[in-house]
Amino acid sequence: MAEGEEVLPLSSWEIDLAKALEEGGCDLETVRNIIQGRPLPDSLRAKVWKIALNVVGKGDSLASWDGCLDLPEQTLIHKDCQELIDQLARPEEEKSALLLDVESVVTFYCKSRNVKYSSSLSWTYLLQPLVHLQLPRCDLYNCFYAIMNKYIPRDCFLKGRPFHLFRLLLQYHEPELCSFLDTKKITPDSYTLNWLGSLFSCYCSHEVTQAIWDGYLQLADPFFIYFLMLIILVNAKEMILGQESNSKEEVIQFLERSPASLEAEDIEDLFSLAQYYCSKTPASFRKDNHSIFGSSLLGLKDDDSDLSQALCLAVSVAEILQANQQQGDGVRFFVVDCRPAEQYNAGHLSTAFHLDSDLMLQNPSEFAQSVKSLLEAQKQSIESGSIAGGEHLCFMGSGREEEDMYMNMVLAHFLQKNKEYVSIAKGGFMALQQHLADINVEGPENGYGHWIASTLGSKSSINSLAEVDSSNGSSEGKGVKSLVNKMTVALKTKSVNVKEKVISFIENTSAPVDRHVSSSDRLGKPYRGVKPVFSIGDEEEYDTDEIDSSSMSDDDRKEIVNIQTWINKPDIKHHFPCNEVKENGYMFSSHLLVTATHMYCLREIPSRKGLAYIQSRQALNSVVKITSKKKHPELITFKYGNSTPTGIEILAVERYLIPNAGDATKAIKQQIIKVLDALES
């Protein structure tokens, strides 16, 4: 801390955190529960990071080392370490000892891990935030080792596997941006190498880097950096696409320096949006690429696939089945079976839409009509709550490379149209059969038994389906059709009224699927600070310092009310249907009700129509800030707090997705001003 800088007294939660850290034995979950996403005091950051990195009580790894700085690259190591130390505002007498510590850490790591040092590794940038903590040498090494082991991906070099994976994630969420960069022949490693290698320290200011690391290390989720990188590109999308006439090198330079524009007050939004995109990403993204991080005991078992050759993100058949069963707002798939008709008729996922990929070359006009109907079916299945509905398109082939060539062409067609949320079922229908066989799906007593349907007669066993599929059976039996096959038959009939059949398909596959997430879902933690004044933010404002306002996580303790009764109460001045948005991106159908003095949030109870929990009750005079996002103007953030000797203390933060948000916020602001005017008078 700079000389003469005022030291602010600790707030109550900071005192609680300091006591917990002082007493020892404090784990990461305890730390998270106390911090609740608020900005860390500088004086406690070192202890919190050590807990997050699990290095508390670790021994001195360098104790038995002879201290020889004699690597072939030692001159380069010394030069890079000297540049790091020169940037620090430390007394000269301290710098020489610190230089020796940093150079020893790098040298010992190279020797113990048998790694050849290179400046491109970004290690000195990675050490920079740790050096600011003024740790002893043993802790400095242990923290550096832990970060390298858990958070820096394997193969973090040009054309490495982590960057191919990031391209697939970018393509999944932002296909237009991905296509633009592909056209320019700009691969992610050309601009994100140092993002990943330094965890943003290479380009961000010290203050911003600390804010990012505070949140990232507390989450303890290595994969989360992929979503932070994604949001940086999403926020810069318009500027990137506007560089059509720029050279490849100019675009790369712009992309590489994008994190440099981040400010400390932006970090909450960065994390919040990253949580949202994370919730909209198939779990297979992590599970199938788990060995990218850490020294997994499984080694490189799941690295057999060449991500550089992947057409799009792959999703496991297990996840597809689970997604079809789950209730909530997670990832749900609209499965498109692209196998030939005879294979589909022999057996298929009962919720799959059939799109014969052979039509793309054999009958382009019929293929175009089928695609149009597919998208209409997807749209209406989502709106009706169909068990077949899902925003995410997942294409399923046979699982045999030579047969799936046409399916790959269909996939490419959708990707060229910049369709988001496009994936492929890993292993195709063969993998589905194998998975169901592995979990012993035979007979009605198993919950998965209904997933396979056939149009060739009575339902077959998994084994017999495999036999028919592998022999390309083409029997014309008139047995029970699958629900989704009704749509397929309609598409093959020239005289069919497509619209009517689409509606019929939706109605016949509809089921009362509950789309809410239960209160037991774990919520993400958001980040960063807030100005200690009441203000009403415009579109461009970023709001910060998020705290989960749901003090009662157990719904059984919340009061249950009749929604319509409350809406009709005489003291309710305004009613706004909305979605409550949690920090991890989950949304709950809710109602905001405004009285003369308070604002209530009623969260609908999925299993009890017409009833709701009183999720929140906030006094209007406790509102200190209302903000919206430039890119998401209907996402409104309310912050509540009160005055303390040191300024405004934020006590709660709530976010809502409100249709016609402008009208809603205008009415709420006017009511707040009335309350404040009344208090002043």
List keywords for this structure.
681 residues, alpha/beta, five-stranded parallel sheet, 27 helices, disordered N terminus
Question: Helix share of residues?
Answer: 40-55%
List segments where confidence is low: pLDDT < 50 over at least 5 consecutive residues.
1-5, 296-303, 443-449, 457-535, 538-556
Distance between the termini: 43 Å
Shape: globular
3D structure, described in words:
Helices cover 43% and strands 13% of the residues. Strands 8-14-15-16-10-11-12-13-9 form a nine-stranded mixed sheet. Strands 1-6-5-2-4 form a five-stranded parallel sheet, with helices on both faces. Strands 3-7 form a two-stranded antiparallel sheet. Strand 10 and strand 11 (587-594) form a beta hairpin. Helix 10 (189-198) runs parallel beside helix 14 (248-256) and helix 22 (428-438) runs antiparallel to helix 23. Residues 1-5, 296-303, 443-449, 457-535 and 538-556 have low confidence and may be disordered.
